[in-house]
TrEMBL record:
<comment type="function">
    <text>Converts cobyric acid to cobinamide by the addition of aminopropanol on the F carboxylic group.</text>
</comment>
<comment type="pathway">
    <text>Cofactor biosynthesis; adenosylcobalamin biosynthesis.</text>
</comment>
<dbReference type="InterPro" id="IPR004485">
    <property type="entry name" value="Cobalamin_biosynth_CobD/CbiB"/>
</dbReference>
<keyword id="KW-1003">Cell membrane</keyword>
<feature type="transmembrane region" description="Helical">
    <location>
        <begin position="58"/>
        <end position="75"/>
    </location>
</feature>
<protein>
    <recommendedName>
        <fullName>Cobalamin biosynthesis protein CobD</fullName>
    </recommendedName>
</protein>
<keyword id="KW-0812">Transmembrane</keyword>
<keyword id="KW-1133">Transmembrane helix</keyword>
<comment type="similarity">
    <text>Belongs to the CobD/CbiB family.</text>
</comment>
<keyword id="KW-0472">Membrane</keyword>
<feature type="transmembrane region" description="Helical">
    <location>
        <begin position="6"/>
        <end position="24"/>
    </location>
</feature>
<dbReference type="Pfam" id="PF03186">
    <property type="entry name" value="CobD_Cbib"/>
</dbReference>
<keyword id="KW-0169">Cobalamin biosynthesis</keyword>
<feature type="transmembrane region" description="Helical">
    <location>
        <begin position="288"/>
        <end position="310"/>
    </location>
</feature>
Amino acid sequence: MLSGLALPELAALLVAGVLLDLLLGEARRWHPLVGFGNLAKAIEARLNRGGRRFSRGLLGWAIAVLPLSLLAWVGTQHAGYLLHVLLLYACIGLRSLREHTMPIVDALRAGDLATARTRTSWIVSRDTREAQEPELAKAGAESLLENGNDAVFGTLFWFLVAGGPGALLFRLANTLDAMWGYRNERFNLFGRAAARIDDALNYVPARLTALSYVVLAGAAGGRAWRCWRTQAPAWSSPNAGPVMASGAGALGVSLGGAAVYDGQLEQRPPLGEGPPASSADIVRAWRLVLGTTLLWLCLACAAALLLSLWTHHA
């Protein structure tokens, strides 16, 4: 392992970090990723000007991500297990996904569209001011499925590869993609490096996530697989497509389609099969993300146990 930790150690630390996140949730004040976002804004304001925007964006990415990742690696050489767990806790966002989406469900069930629109606007970039229940439910379910990969499974994957520093590098890169990876006049060149690096880091985790959604779909696994293979290629994002298509197929709902961005109606490729999403499907999407997390933890622990038995009898 790149972390220098054995698989049984990594599996134990993985469980500890996830449990810490479920117990405490994200920090209400002084969240490390919020501080990193402020740093990224300052770097972008300084470098995103003049010519050679792509090169400047790549330099900005390196300045933002590499020193912090190196510092984390050096720290784990001295602080050991504790820092690995704390880094994973700071990077993972499992409980926060629930805390950001369940209030949308509560508002929709109470018929409070105003609150549901406001809550949904906090987690998606689309315009929700005139959205009705199906559009809000669709946005919430899509956000859970996609961010299950970005905020949870990609982080877990890179933790298993490189420990706490790997999880940190992934989350910092993912955050920069979320901030800089837009195809507009301001970021098209400057943010291209951040978007491509995030695509590369997310390539394997996204497909493992999509496969996990297929497995947990049970009898609907064939539909989830079919949606993944036939619908994902139509999406511009090489990683969001497989994750959301597989997840929508597993849930048996129709996602994608029309959405308003910056006042413009966009027709996005369809996802899944079945009726339009409802508030209940946001809950089902959360359970799918949680179930996938438990699946990954069980697989990591089982692999660690088998390795330990193998080593003991070798």
